[in-house]
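Q: I'm writing up a methods section and want to include an example of the input and output format. Could you take the sequence below and give the corresponding predicted structure tokens, formatted cleanly so I can copy it straight into the document?
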Amino acid sequence: MDELLSKHRKEQKDLQGRITQKKKSATKKTRRGINDDCERMQRELNERHQAEIAQLNGEPLEPVEALEDLNLDDEAPADTESNENKTSQDAEPIPKPTQEEQPTQTKKPNRQKARLARRAAEQAAAAEAAAEEAANQTNYRGDEKEVMDAVFKKLGLKEIEVNPDGHCLYSSVAKQLDDSGLGLRPDPSRIVLQPTTQSRIDTVASPQHDGYRAVRAVTADFIDQNKDDFEAFMEEPLDVYTRKIKLTAEWGGHLELQAIAPGLRRGN
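A: Here is the clean output for your methods example:
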């Protein structure tokens, strides 16, 4: 009996080693099948051990499920290797998990897309709020235009849109001079033109399109020749100021109008 129990302990130890190796090599997809296989191997070994002990004690054998082919008269396996081979032959193939048993992977939400969508929604809400606020505000520009149109109509004038490109003051003066038939050439008794200014006037292709070049040059020359009347109102040197008038798209204002009016005046 002691010899048989010793053999049983050795077989149990060997089986536990094989079960451990099987479970270590299991994956998520094969774990369930391997666990079932390990339980079956353990159950079969336990039943065989019980049968061997009963045979040794002379007890009647009870029918054991799945052991109909077990021959108790045969000699016990000589070593662990033969037991392992027998168990491997009797082992059923590991069932593959069905599609329903396979774990479903939840798709992670795209945080960047969520942020962009949230930002777009916030911008749309802000635009809608701004539009609603603007609709409830007083339209000062519209009211002003309505009043000015009434005055223009009374005086026989009309409003002409000018491109706000920095040359708008000078372009509007050039257009009015051209529409009035006065031309862009100033009265020589009021201003002495520089050669470059004269060249600008002579090369104007169309007063409505590039006439501002001539008006700018005349304005700069008039300020330069009457610097005592203008220099005190400048925040930069005179030559820098007049150079901006001639060569850049610097906006004109009150100071420039003060030079345009006398510089391009006709007659007394």
